[in-house]
Amino acid sequence: MQVNSVETLLANSLAQSDLSEKQQNVLKACLKLFSEQGYDRTTTADIANLAGVSEGTVYKHFKNKREILDALLEPLKASVLPAVADEFVAETAKQHFDSLEAALRFLVSDRMRFVLDNRLIIRVFLQEVLVNTDLFDSALAMAKQRFVPAVMPMLVKFSQPQHPLTLEAFRPIFGLMLTYLLPVILKPELQLDVDQATAKILTNVMPALS
Q1: What is the mean predicted confidence (pLDDT) over 81-98?
Q2: How does the average pLDDT of the chain come out, rounded?
Q3: 198: exposed, middle or buried (C-beta count within 10 Å: 0-12, 13-18, 19+)?
């Protein structure tokens, strides 16, 4: 049984790799299985069955499950995620907003759609973060390095001189986004209306930011 659905980030990562078709199928199968069953409950037999290869083929290309997980996450951390961040920053810089609400609407909806498009790999990432805090620290450092300097000036320009906006003022937005996104990350079969969720988030936060 071949895996028919590949997430955006993994597709980008595989496109940039020199992996064989069988290796790519193994990684696609692992993404699905690790996200649905968890790393510990997934066997190499499960992986081989979903990837459409023999269990011996899995071991031929990867020494163990840990090596497969590293093959999923390391390229994302090292190159794909930074590239995605830079692309988002460049795209945001092209936008022209006439209000703080318009800017936030774009940022919130864009990032929520990004999470939905990549919910499986993000779920595997979050599972690994629980046992590998260095992974979380490196991802957070990358986000601060790339997102904050690029996005904050765009938002701060809408501040009132007597009440300048700071990063702290936007933290409630992140919390509200998580309340909508975590359920669909943990249960990928769930659906989320991004436009509706974005509207509700802005309704909650705009009075405090205005």
Answers
A1: 81
A2: 84
A3: buried
CB 28 within 8 Å of CB 54? no
Q: Is the CB of residue 120 less than 8 Å from the CB of residue 7?
A: yes
Encoded amino acid at 186, one letter = L
For residue 42, give its domain range.
8-61
Q: Where do we find the tokens 């459409």? A: 52
Cα–Cα separations (whole angstroms), residue 144 to 43, 117, 149, 165: 36, 22, 8, 17
Report how far residue 62's alpha carbon sits from residue 66's, in angstroms, rounded to the nearest whole number. 9
Query: CB under 8 Å, gap of 24 or more: what pairs does 87-96 form?
Result: 88/114, 88/147, 89/146, 89/147, 89/150, 89/151, 92/150, 92/151, 92/154, 93/150, 93/154
Q: Is the pLDDT of residue 192 over 90?
A: yes
CA distances from 182 to 5, 114, 123, 160, 167 (A): 21, 13, 9, 33, 22
CA distance 4 to 145: 35
Same domain flag for 142 and 202 = yes
pTM given for the model: 0.75
Based on the structure, what is the number of domains in the chain?
2
Q: Of 26, 42, 43, whose CA–CA distance to 34 is shortest?
A: 42
DSSP 80: I
> What backbone torsions phi and psi does residue 160 show, to the nearest 5 degrees?
-80, 135
